[in-house]
Amino acid sequence: MGGFCLLPCFAEMARCGGLASSFVDEPIALLPVLIAHENATTRESYPNLARLAILAGVSKVTAGSG
Questions:
Q1: Domain ranges of the chain
Q2: Mind listing the pLDDT tens digit of every residue in the chain (66 residues)?
Q3: For the whole model, what pTM was predicted?
């Protein structure tokens, strides 16, 4: 059916930090947090660096080195 997958609680889990331990590779851990903060109209995501680091479970240095 088009290659899409429905993840009902994905955004909520990312916003509360529930996905922080789900990814072993630190840079990949940022992706679900960025997706959860995506603006549906502009498709842009601008979470605060500190928030991004906390919710992804990485250091601020790792979060800012992208």
A1: 10-64
A2: 455 555 556 667 666 666 666 666 667 778 888 888 888 888 888 888 898 888 888 888 888 875
A3: 0.59
